[in-house]
Design goal:
Blueprint (H helix, E strand, L loop, with lengths): L1 E2 L3 E2 L12 E2 L1 E3 L1 E4 L4 E4 L2 E7 L13 E8 L5 E7 L13 E9 L5 E9 L4 E3 L5 E3 L11 E6 L5 E6 L6 E4 H14 L37 E9 L6 E10 L10 E2 L3 E3 L23 E8 L7 E10 L2 E7 L2 E2 L7 E5 L5 E4 L1 H5 L7 E8 L2 E8 L7 H4 L3 E16 L2 H6 L18 H6 L8 E2 L1 E7 L4 E7 L20 H5 L6 H4 L15 E6 L20 E3 L1 E2 L11 E6 L3 E4 L6 E8 L2 H7 L3 E2 L5 E2 L10 E6 L10 E7 L4 E12 L4 E5 L8 H4 L30 E5 L8 E5 L2 E14 L5 H4 L2 E9 L8 E17 L10 E10 L22 E5 L1 H6 L8 E14 L3 E4 L7 E16 L6 E11 L3 E3 L9 E4 L5 E6 L29 E15 L14 E9 L27 E3 L6 E3 L15 E11 L11 E11 L6 E2 L13 H6 L22 E2 L24 E8 L20 E3 ...
Parallel strand pairs: 2-3, 50-57, 54-64, 83-106
Antiparallel strand pairs: 1-128, 4-115, 5-6, 6-128, 7-114, 8-9, 9-10, 10-11, 12-13, 14-15, 15-16, 17-21, 18-19, 18-20, 18-22, 21-25, 22-23, 22-24, 23-26, 27-28, 28-67, 29-47, 30-35, 31-32, 31-48, 33-34, 36-47, 37-46, 38-41, 38-45, 39-40, 41-44, 42-43, 42-45, 43-44, 48-60, 49-50, 49-51, 49-59, 51-58, ...
Length: 2026
């Protein structure tokens, strides 16, 4: 007796079959407890899947593509409407999420409810946005997922399909929303909303992406600074607002916008004057708040989460504010941050570093409250780099009038408005205004910037940023640098590789787009697909140099920084001051007396006078004064004197003072100046005594022999004519903020679907990236020769050698006051003191500086500041007289072209304050004298001994101004002084890092929402930002109902993109020096200058911290000038250096740009930077008490990449608290917390427990991997272990602590044959042949799309699925595959022969292609895009000089110097000297032939030159009448060329032109007669008869399709000819677009158009193409391809990719042609693949395989009670479903869930039994009796023990209510027996006929061998052979029988992956083919075999097949079998 508990085993021969095993089972289950094998239950229909409408109508046709099982037996169901029948067409493609939950008595049943189901397509949302609501489920992408129950008992599911983004749904929340909608609405479907939000109320075009697992932000909010207000607690810093969204589950999106920083200072916003609105030390309390305006936010979310990024003292801090609830109607709102409201400190990284997001996830699982994702894709590249090359950037300016007004009032300069009210000025005009510094920064003129465009993806994240290339070169830009009057080219060429564009300006030339040119000389565009566009290539196809954007310079008048300056009329008042008195006690009145004094007088300019009498000229007197040190040289005084005999009064100018002796030298020559007394402030002459008009100065006459003279010297009451400004004097400027606009931004529609907008970025311009290192004022040094120490008054204190010094002298009134500034006592500027705020503040390196470029000359209002006099000792050199000067910019003079000056080698250095720098090593030659001076930058200019190369002198200001005496107020002089403002520049051939390695800055500019439509290609937009008004579409927009247009009026100001790094500021700087050189007066010089510069620092926000950090205008000019040199505070050892690095107080945070969350530049060298096939990403850990859904938070660094040598990651699973990582070729398991046994018996944990901290273990380590999987849907986690399938290696595994192969438990061979990775049974030989014909694998590149191969797509493609059956503790594994149908095989063979309509297989891509002949264009230049076309150039529009153009001739041709022109009678008359010519620039293409034509006359011939090519037309002939001439030419490269026209002789002469034209030469393929003219992309007839034609590849009878357009005709007829035919094919007499489909009629190949007389129209867009004789359509659900629509470039066979699914169909279309409409014949080819497969069960506890099963579902699910399956519509394997009549389009059951627990009808699957009992599937079991297997035996009978039950099933029942009645029956209905050569055939079991019960066993006999007999011959050792009769098949089967057998195998589609060797007797006859039956060929059984030949069964074993047909619905359990046998003795 054999009991059967060891499972299904087929690996042995039957004679070796293990006892207790069975060889075959069908629809069997194993009762492991009872040790029986029985028939399994059928399945019964559960609730149908699909939505039910509010009207109770049910919408069927939903195919289940995934489920998520919950432990409480709820099942989340994912389905898609997949029935393409007409009845369900409107429903087709809708995706649904529903829930199955237990119901009925004892929860035995399931109820289905729809949770979410939106219509396909789009709906109109808020703001007329088209809203996408489709979940986009596809049957080809099955869904898998997991779930969790959160702290609020919400059920949340997470799923992926590796096609759509991974998503999640709060099921509980959605259930509530559905219920609430039903309760509160009477219309609408409750499942057409998400969490209570209706899509029609949304502005998110990707509404459905709210479900994305990675939070999908949707529309990004707009942020704008509204105002800065008083009242708050902000400290001085800058603040940026960041915004994120939050949903009800408290899941936060990434911060989707971080706005530009807002600068906060401590001054009140309304402070006056505006100069007081300055910066403050970081962290100073300001008492302010910031108010932002928020708009355009996504109302689908519940909250907005604001965060503040504070930039404080170089550090960044973050503060998270309270969430703000979003209102449903989404109004704009204001957000205020005061610093005092509730907030929590946050990490800046939380804002800066995004949580990671991926586009697709292949597999996911959870472990230890962490969600793990595997095999990820994230493509930030939307593929825009090619398109970015089309974008055109042009500069634009914003004009700002009345910029930062400043008052010249003396009260302001001296005291900062103490006595007068401050100037009322609007700070909004400058960068003190918070909004301007926040949003309106510009760009530096002449500087190079790298710009990028990045897209805001639909989820709110940013795409890669795409480089926007600069314009191409024009004119002579690429030539080597040429000489210019503005610079010495030979000097600059010494810099190396210098081109014209480096220095010359071209921004005003044609085609420059007003930009300068820039290219990196040593960086080319990468050779990648992204840059595979002509714009990034040279003419020869090589990579072009990288081009950036260089803005126009200040020499371009339209874009220079300052447009104008004004000063309001000035009112002055003479200052009334008390006079000073000096007592006289002696005088020297003549030359001899002066000589006797022995004094050498040092004059103010440093020259000497005396002591010889001859040095004086009788206009001098010397007075001995008691306090001579108080006199000021250069001042005018009243001198009164008295002697015993005479007295007098006169005016005298003090010209020198010898302080040591007390003598002062005066010049009396001014005494006679009329009106001088009053002019300088003296009253009537009576005030000081009587005097005569010629002056009462003492002389030899009136002082003869007088020995005593006394008197008084008086100062003026107005201090030397000092004037105070008391009214007017407000200076202001009109400035231009330099921005830009972008044109031709064309976004392909495919990209537009992925994005919601774009942003503009530029590369962070660090100091090392700058060409312009800084801008500032520059003043000249002067050269002094002398000794250090002492002064000209006393050289005794001097020390050291006599040497030259460069002394930095503060700006003087006039350069004439300077000593030598260049060789030979010249006044050119050789040495400069340069002041740039940022460089002085940061002391950044200036070593890269190579040259300077003067930008403008600033002319200043000039003031003499108050003098100061300090006498510290008796030494003349220690008596300090401080001369101060104030300069406030009055106007700015720009040169027409920038004049560059080369710096002398190494002559550039920082000079510290109060220092004497030995700069000889820096190339300056001399020491730099800066004692008592400020820190500055010294620059030496390269020149020669003749002063060539130096800067010209420019300061011709005050000429000998009257100077006030010491200690008097400042005075407005009313004169002008000047200084250069220069750029310090570095010559570079390359700027920035490589194009893909930039750190980017966001400009703050973005286009999004409806405005994006302006840029979508082929839309209605003009692709220009400049044409948007304020960033919005102007004019007509859609109205509120999305249909009615609303006129919003004309556009406003064009949009200008700002957000740069450059401020326009007024910069105040103090210059000072304390001369202590033996040849120089000891007079301190102090100047304060105030003028405009461009700066990357907001200089307005400099601040003071103490007196040593004073600056202007933070303090008044007077304080700034003299704070350290006035009164008792004066100390030579304690002078302040206001420009010292530590004394410039500025918070660099105010210079900050928006670099917090920039986009990243597209990587150039990574081909697939976003595919992570081996990556695992994990979420943050979920807390059981947390309200936040941490499963949706993925930190960017929380990932781990697996080894790439084990294939892709295919499946993540968890078992025993470990993560199983299933790769294609191996299984890896992570390590968790491991334990170690301690000595005391306890255990200790070792390891971190973090599975990412340790490398996972490969369970079985081999060289190439072991135990991988390629089928994620076949894997299964059970309590017995982890079940998996390695389809590639044809093995099945169960893994616990080790991996065990279970496919070798008796079925190793079977799995090897049936797990093969089939390719649809393609014949490889035919495949190889087809590959050869179509060019190998290359044919796949012509396929226009990539359709998935579905190698793991079991629903419609091929793949494996599995399920756990809790009841029977078994695993069910199903393989679903596709086989070629008979039609498919025909197409395969056609493909092998490369015939159209055939299919071929591409093994490399695992795809299939349909061969076809495409339609090919046969005609060239049919759009007339070139050929006799005028070159597009606006300066050449009317080249015939027609005066009717109303434009001067110079508009068309530019004129050189030395040319005189006139225009009469359309003739351009030119008179010129030997250099004159006319010229113009044209953009010409390489390789294109051009023709230049002119009509001319002249005295000395004509010459036409192309610069860079040479003369193209030359004649010396003299022509007195107009003559035509022409020349053809080709240019070597594509660029802009200059064309010159002049006389052939260079002597002075005249030339007249009546017409000129430049045309592209007509394409030669058209033959055109004189009546036709090609122009403007069409060919036009002049009204006379004529034709044009072109030869084509056409012969008689060929079918051709012609389309063309006729336009502009008013009369006539045009006819079309196919070939040289006598009769026109058709004729046309009116405008229209026409199509002709006909055969070629004539003998020749020409296509001809012939116009009859009178035809006056044009023809355009001619297309002639082939028409294939046969075309094809491919359909598969929503997939459709028509090969008619595919155009080929060349004729010949091509392939288009087709889906590999069971429902794909191919149809062929053929046509016959006629001159009228063409009828179409339609022929269906049909389905080319059919569904096949198998299902098998495994019992882990028994470690045995069980049975094959007659169901082939595409998906399983389960509960704790049973398992369920779903099957495909019309996908029943033909093996056992053939002939089932009820399967059709309207089969309701085809989309039903089927429960596999039906006791009503065992063996009835999917309702088959309900239709007809014959469709019930049988239970079969095959056993082998082989006891005493070594001996042959005769088998006479067999017997078996069974239990048979009848199920008593109530009408309404639960399984627990079913009662089973035992029946006394054997249970089986049929059997057959067999051995190696014998077979009984199938025999019905009939009681008492061949079966009876003996005891408890049922005994069967009466079976004999029914196998067909045949003869065979055995060759022996003798010469004779013996013939024997035996049964079975011969070894050499007849050809007829073999063909029959082969056809049978093919026809039944059984052995689709098995052994096809029909010569193997056992496998061919008895082998298990496919999955379903023993193959017994009909030819093998002989039902007519005579009784005498029906032998008994004799062999070593007997195989027994027991069959129960399940018709009577009983349950049969088999316990054991046995046989009756006896030994075979013959």
């Amino acid at each position: 007796m054999s009991r059967y508990i060891k499972g299904l085993i087929r690996d042995t021969s039957p004679s070796d079959q293990p006892e207790g095993s069975w060889r075959y089972a069908r629809n069997a289950v194993v009762n492991r407890v009872d040790g029986t094998v029985g028939n399994e239950e059928g399945n019964k229909a559960g609730p149908p899947v699909g939505r039910t409408g509010r009207d109770r109508s049910f919408y069927k046709g939903y195919k289940v593509i995934g489920t998520i099982e919950v432990t409480d037996d709820r099942i989340i169901v994912f389905s898609v409407a997949s029935n393409p029948s007409e009845k369900e067409k409107a429903e087709y493609g809708r995706s649904e999420i529903g829930i199955l939950y237990p119901s009925g008595e004892e929860n035995q049943d399931l109820t289905y409810k729809t949770l979410l189901n939106f219509p396909t397509g789009t709906v109109e949302g808020a703001n007329c946005t088209l809203i996408d609501t489709s979940l986009k489920f596809l049957p080809r992408h099955p869904i898998s997922g997991t779930y969790k129950i959160d702290a609020k008992e919400n059920l949340i599911v997470y799923w992926t399909d590796d096609f759509n983004p991974a998503r999640s749904l709060n099921v509980t929340r959605q259930e509530r929303a559905v219920a609430e909608y039903l309760a509160s609405n009477t219309v609408g479907e409750p499942y057409e909303q998400l969490y209570g939000r209706l899509p029609e109320n949304s502005i998110n075009k990707n509404f459905i992406d709210r479900l994305n697992m990675f939070p999908h932000a949707g529309p990004v909010p707009s942020v704008d600074l509204h105002k800065v207000i008083s009242g708050g607690g902000l400290v001085s810093a800058s603040y940026a607002l960041a915004l994120a969204y939050v949903d009800k589950d408290l899941v936060v999106t990434n911060y989707v916008v971080v706005d530009n920083p807002v600068s906060i200072v401590d001054d009140i916003e309304s402070v006056l004057p505006i100069e007081r609105y300055d910066g403050a030390p970081p962290g100073t309390q300001t008492g302010k708040s910031i108010v932002w305006n928020i708009s355009d936010y996504n109302t689908d979310y519940d909250y907005i989460r604001p965060a503040i990024i504070q930039h404080l003292d170089g550090n960044r801090f973050a503060f998270q504010l309270h969430d703000i609830e979003i209102l449903a109607d989404g109004p704009d709102f204001e957000l205020t941050f005061s610093g005092t409201e509730g907030y929590t400190s946050s990490s800046v990284d939380d804002i800066v570093i995004d949580t990671i997001a991926y586009d697709t996830v292949k597999t996911l699982t959870q472990l230890d409250n962490v969600l793990y994702l595997g095999n990820l894709k994230r493509n930030l590249d939307v593929g825009y780099q090619k398109n970015a090359g089309d974008i055109q950037l042009s500069p634009k300016v914003i004009n700002v009038t009345n910029f930062d007004p400043f008052s010249l009032l003396t009260d302001n300069l001296e005291h900062g408005f103490i006595e007068m009210p401050p100037l009322v000025a609007d700070k909004s005009k400058g960068y003190r205004n918070p909004y301007n510094s926040y949003k309106r920064r510009g760009y530096t003129r002449g500087e190079v910037y790298a710009f990028y465009i990045a897209f805001i993806l639909n989820d709110g994240s940013m795409s890669y940023a795409y480089h926007i290339p600069g314009r191409g070169s024009i004119s002579t830009e690429m030539n080597d640098l040429e000489d210019s009057s503005l610079y010495n080219a030979s000097n600059l060429n010494a810099l190396g590789e210098v081109k014209n564009y480096h220095f010359k300006s071209y921004s005003e030339e044609v085609d420059s787009r007003n930009m300068e040119y820039w290219e990196n000389s040593h960086e080319t565009y990468p050779n990648t697909l992204a840059f595979n566009s002509e714009v990034y290539k040279n003419e020869d196809g090589s990579a072009a140099q990288v081009r950036h954007h260089r803005f126009p310079k200040n020499d371009n008048a339209e874009y220079r920084v300052i447009a104008g300056s004004t000063t309001t009329p000035i009112t002055t008042e003479v200052l009334q001051m008390p006079a000073l008195e000096f007592t006289i006690d002696n005088v020297a009145v003549n030359n001899n007396q002066l000589e006797d004094l022995g004094i050498t007088w040092v004059l103010e300019d440093g020259s000497l006078l005396g002591p010889d009498s001859g040095d004086f000229d009788n206009k001098h007197e010397a007075w001995h004064v008691t306090n001579a040190g108080g006199l000021v040289v250069g001042s005018t005084y009243v001198i009164t004197w008295t002697s015993p005999l005479n007295s007098g009064s006169f005016l005298g100018e003090c010209i020198a003072v010898d302080v040591t002796s007390g003598w002062a030298l005066f010049d009396h020559s001014q005494s006679q100046a009329p009106g001088l007394w009053g002019a300088i402030g003296f009253g009537s002459s009576d005030t000081y005594g009587n005097f005569v008009t010629d002056g009462d100065y003492p002389n030899e006459t009136n002082l003869w022999n007088e020995d005593k003279v006394v008197g008084t010297i008086y100062s003026s009451t107005t201090a030397g004519a000092s004037q105070a400004i008391t009214g007017g004097g407000t200076t202001s400027d009109d400035v231009r903020i330099l921005g830009f606009t972008l044109d031709n931004i064309k976004i392909p529609a495919a990209i537009a679907k992925k994005v919601q907008g774009f942003r503009i970025y530029y590369a962070d311009r660090q100091h090392e990236d700058k060409r312009i290192l800084g801008q500032g004022v520059a003043t000249p040094y002067e050269k002094i020769r002398g000794q250090l120490g002492g002064c000209i008054l006393n050289s005794d204190g001097a020390e050291g050698i006599v040497q030259n010094f460069w002394m930095k002298t503060p700006l003087t009134y006039n350069d004439s006051y300077l000593k030598e500034t260049a060789p030979n006592d010249a006044k050119e500027y050789q040495m400069l003191a340069f002041y740039n705020f940022e460089l002085l503040r940061s002391q950044k390196s200036i070593s890269p500086a190579t040259h300077i470029s003067p930008q403008w000359v600033t002319t200043y209002h000039t003031f003499k500041g108050p003098g100061a006099h300090h006498e510290t000792s008796t030494s003349p050199c220690d008596v300090e007289i401080i001369n101060s000067r104030f300069y406030v910019a009055e106007s700015y003079s720009f040169t027409t072209r920038v004049a560059y000056r080369l710096l002398k080698e190494r002559c550039k250095t920082y000079v510290n304050g109060d220092s004497i720098l030995d700069a000889s090593g820096h190339g300056f030659g001399y020491k730099l004298y800066n004692q008592g001076g400020e820190t500055h930058i010294a620059l030496g200019i390269s020149g020669d001994a003749n002063n060539n190369g130096f800067l010209p002198r420019i300061n011709n200001g005050a000429n000998n101004p009257v100077i006030p005496i010491v200690d008097n107020p400042s005075s407005y002089l009313g004169v002008q002084s000047s200084a250069y403002t220069i750029n310090l520049e570095a010559f570079k051939t390359d700027v920035y890092n490589t194009v893909d390695s930039q750190n980017l800055i966001w400009t703050g500019f973005e286009i999004k929402g409806k405005n994006l439509e302006n840029f979508i290609e082929d839309g209605d937009g003009d692709y220009s930002i400049g044409h948007l008004s304020g960033g919005k579409n102007p004019g007509i927009v859609e109205g509120a109902d999305c249909d009615t247009p609303v006129d919003h009026g004309p556009p406003g100001e064009p949009t200008v993109i700002l957000g740069g790094d450059t401020f326009i500021c007024k910069y105040g700087v103090r210059q000072s020096v304390t001369p202590r050189i033996s040849t120089y007066l000891p007079s301190d010089q102090v100047s304060v200058l105030y003028s405009i510069i461009e700066s990357t620092d907001n200089i307005n926000f400099r601040h003071e911290e103490d007196v040593s950090t004073t600056y202007f205008p933070g303090s008044p000019m007077q304080k700034t000038a003299l704070v350290d040199r006035d009164g008792k505070s004066f100390d030579l050892l304690n002078l302040f250096d206001f420009t010292g690095e530590d004394k410039i107080k500025y918070n660099p945070d105010y210079s900050g740009v928006n670099n917090v969350r920039p986009a990243f530049v597209l990587p150039n060298l990574i081909t697939a930077p976003s595919v992570f096939t081996t990556r695992i990403q994990r979420s943050t850990k979920a807390s059981r008490t947390s309200l936040i859904d941490n499963f949706r938070i993925f930190l960017s660094q929380e990932f781990k990449d697996m080894p790439k040598n084990r294939g892709e990651l295919w499946k993540l699973s968890t078992f025993n608290n470990l993560l199983y990582i299933h790769m294609e070729d191996s299984l890896l398991v992570t390590k968790g917390k491991q334990t170690m046994a301690m000595k005391d018996g306890t255990e200790a944990f070792i390891g971190s427990g973090d599975i990412f901290q340790q490398e996972p273990d490969e369970l079985v380590q081999t060289e190439h991997g072991y135990g991988g999987t390629q089928s994620q849907y076949s894997t299964l986690v059970t309590k017995y272990g982890y079940f998996s399938v390695d389809e590639r290696n044809k093995k099945v595994f169960m893994t616990t602590d080790k991996m065990t192969e279970i496919s070798n438990l008796g079925l190793e061979k079977w799995f090897y044959n049936n797990l093969s990775n089939d390719k649809g049974s393609f014949n490889t030989t035919e495949y190889d042949y087809a590959q050869t014909l179509v060019g190998g694998d290359q044919y796949s590149t012509s396929w226009g799309f990539r359709y998935a191969s579905f190698k793991d797509s079991p629903i419609i493609g091929k793949g494996l699925v599995s399920v756990w059956d809790e009841k029977y503790q078994r695993i069910l594994l199903t393989k679903r595959a596709l086989l070629l149908t008979e039609r498919g095989k025909i197409l395969q063979r056609m493909g092998g022969r490369s015939e159209p309509g055939g299919i071929v297989y591409n093994e490399k891509n695992d795809t299939y292609g349909l061969l076809f002949n495409p339609s090919v264009s046969l005609l060239y230049n049919g759009d007339f895009s070139y050929g006799n076309e005028l070159v597009e150039n606006t300066s050449f529009t009317h080249s015939d000089f027609n005066a009717a153009a109303h434009l001067p001739a110079s508009f068309f041709w530019l004129e050189s110097y030395g040319l005189v022109r006139s225009l009469t009678s359309n003739v351009f008359d030119i008179s010129y000297d030997n250099t004159g010519y006319i010229y113009q620039y044209f953009s010409l293409e390489k390789g294109q032939e051009y023709t230049f034509e002119t009509t001319w006359k002249g005295t000395n011939g004509i010459n036409v030159d192309i610069i860079g090519v040479g003369a193209i037309l030359t004649t010396n002939a003299k022509e007195s009448t107009l003559t035509s001439a022409s020349a053809n030419f080709v240019v070597p490269t594509t660029r802009v060329y200059e064309i010159r026209i002049q006389g052939a002789s260079r002597s002075a002469s005249s030339l007249s032109l009546a017409g000129t034209s430049l045309k592209k030469v007509a394409h030669p393929v058209w033959s055109v007669d004189s009546s036709w003219d090609i122009r403007d992309s069409k060919i036009t007839n002049d009204g006379t008869a004529g034709s044009f034609s072109q030869g084509t590849a056409s012969t008689y009878g060929d079918r051709r399709l012609l389309t063309f357009t006729i336009q502009g005709m008013t009369t006539g007829i045009v006819s079309v000819y196919f070939g040289a035919a006598n009769t026109a094919l058709r004729s046309f007499s009116e405008d229209g677009t026409y199509t002709i489909d006909d055969t070629w009629k004539g003998s020749g190949p020409e296509l001809s158009f012939s116009a009859q007389t009178g035809f006056d129209g044009s023809i355009a867009d001619i297309i002639l193409s082939t028409v294939p004789n046969k075309a094809f359509t491919v359909t598969d659900g929503n997939f459709y391809v028509d090969t008619n629509a595919i155009k080929g470039e060349t004729d010949g066979i091509q392939a288009v990719e087709i889906p590999f699914t069971s429902s794909v169909t191919i149809a062929t279309t053929s046509s016959s042609s006629s001159t009228d409409d063409v009828p179409q014949d339609f022929a269906e080819i049909g389905v080319i693949w059919q569904r096949v497969g198998w299902t098998i069960s495994f019992y882990p506890e028994l470690n045995a395989w069980g049975s094959l099963h007659d169901y082939l579902p595409h998906h399983y699910t389960y509960t704790s009670k049973t398992f369920y399956s779903f099957y495909n519509w019309k996908e029943f394997p033909s093996v056992f479903w053939t002939g089932v009549p009820w399967i059709g389009d309207d089969a309701d059951e085809s989309y039903t869930i089927w429960a596999h627990n039906s006791v009503e009808a065992p063996g009835s699957f999917y309702g088959s039994e309900a239709v007809n009992a014959k469709f019930t599937q049988p239970f079969e079991l095959e056993v082998v009796e082989n006891k005493e297997r070594d001996a042959s035996k005769i088998f006479s009978s067999f017997k078996y023990e069974t239990e048979v039950f009848e199920a008593a099933v109530p009408t309404e029942y639960s399984l627990n209510q079913v009662r089973y009645k035992r029946l006394d029956k054997d249970g089986f209905t049929q059997f057959f027996v067999y051995n190696n050569t014998q077979h009984s055939g199938v025999i019905d079991i009939k009681y008492l006929k061949n079966i009876r019960k003996i005891g408890h066993m049922w005994n069967i006999n009466k079976f004999r061998d029914m196998a067909r007999l045949y003869s065979t011959t055995f060759d022996g050792y003798t010469a004779d052979s013996t013939t024997t009769v035996t049964s079975g098949f011969p070894n050499h089967i007849s050809s007829h029988l073999l063909a029959t057998l082969e056809n049978a195998v093919v026809d039944t589609n059984l052995d689709f992956v098995g052994n096809n060797d029909v010569h193997d007797m056992f496998e061919a006859t008895w082998g298990l083919n496919g999955a379903y039956t023993i193959f017994t060929h009909p030819s093998y059984i002989d039902s007519t075999k005579s009784w005498t030949k029906q032998r008994k069964f004799t062999d070593t074993y007997l195989g027994i097949r027991l069959i129960y047909d399940n018709i009577n619905k009983n349950f049969v359990n088999l316990y054991s079998t046995s046989v009756a046998m006896r030994k075979y003795n013959r």
